[in-house]
Amino acid sequence: MAEKKSDRTRAAILTAARERFGADGYERATIRAIAADAAIDPAMVMRYYGSKEKLFAAAAEFDLRLPDFRDVPPDQLGEAVVRHFVTRWEGDDTLRALLRSSVTNEAAADRMRELFAAQLAPTLRDLAIEQPAIRAGLVASQTLGFALCRYILGIAPIATMSHDDVVAWLGPTLTRYLTAPTP
């Protein structure tokens, strides 16, 4: 029974941390505020995670859940990638929290770099895409730039575009990044 309570406490801390880091960013989020959000004593947060940085690392664990793109025609690959990313950004606050924090915190920026390098580049390699690391970086530049403008800065009209419009605008650019011959 104690283990189940421990699991619930950890889950409550992580949920509170994701929300707080997402709302305040890494620098302004405090262990005290996260503990208050989780309705526990701040000492419990430290007991489970040891430090704010370790808590952030745990809260920032994120799976892009990249689908198998092997059946997507090459001329539609960018559209499929954009549609997937928009769905992921809007379905989970963790990635937004990580983006917001990565602008001001080196540990968060490292985590964001790792995320794209460890998950996107291998997916591109599996598709036999030439120079997958470079192309993953180009995809990251577009998706992260879009996400920053839409979800963090709220730049109009980017913040209110429909998914279909986002796909129509960004899809061809990502398709070019993914399939065009190396310059």
CATH top-level class of the largest domain: Mainly Alpha
Which word captures the global form? elongated
Class from secondary-structure proportions: mainly alpha
Question: What is the CA–CA distance across the termini?
Answer: 60 Å
Report the order of strands and helices: HHHHHHHHH
Helix share, percent: over 70%
Largest sheet: none
**Percent of residues in beta strands:** under 5%
Rg is 18 Å
CATH architecture name of the largest domain = Orthogonal Bundle
Domain tally: 2
Low-pLDDT runs: none
Number of strands: 0
CATH topology of the largest domain: Tetracycline Repressor, domain 2
Sequence-ordered SSE layout with sheet pairings:
Blueprint: H1 2-28, H2 31-38, H3 42-49, H4 52-59, H5 77-91, H6 93-102, H7 106-126, H8 132-152, H9 163-179
